[in-house]
Design brief:
143 residues; alpha+beta; 6-stranded antiparallel beta sheet
Length: 143
């Protein structure tokens, strides 16, 4: 061990082929949509099921995209990055920093995620239990 608390970031090169629905992921960030405090980077906000990124399996929500086809995304507006993706061609090379290496945390929000079915199930169970308690209390009052 070298005594350092921080390891070097994990950089990954990913090649994706554009499919019928694009590259299969959404992005957030840029100098006008800062996602992580003090960081103008561009991050993966959603992986689309069945899309190129999901089929490849290496890109994850929260990963930071550093470059597209060798073009750095540093200090770019979100709309400029979207245009780079649109004009990138059929085979797109991404340089990515894995999310486990990011330490600042989100500025105000997290990637857009839907609640899991288990969370929704627990919410429904709780609502049902509250309803039963209210009904029993009303029944006892009417007696």
């Amino acid at each position: 061990m070298n005594g350092s608390l921080h390891s070097s970031p994990t950089l990954v090169d990913i090649n994706l082929n554009r499919g019928p629905a694009g590259l299969g992921f959404n992005i957030i960030g840029g100098i006008d949509q800062q996602f992580v405090r003090n960081d103008n980077g561009v991050y993966v906000s959603k992986i689309k099921e069945g899309g190129s990124a999901a089929l490849d399996g290496r890109l994850e929500e929260g990963d930071k995209i550093l470059a597209i086809n060798g073009v750095s995304l540093e200090n770019r507006y979100h709309s400029d990055v979207v245009e780079l993706f649109r004009s990138a061609g059929e085979n797109v090379h991404l340089r990515v920093m894995k999310k486990s290496d990011l330490s600042n945390g989100p500025a105000t929000s997290k990637p857009n995620r839907q609640p899991s079915s288990s969370a929704l199930g627990m919410l429904a169970l709780f609502a049902g239990a509250v309803s039963i308690i209210v009904i029993v209390a009303l029944y006892k009052r009417l007696k």
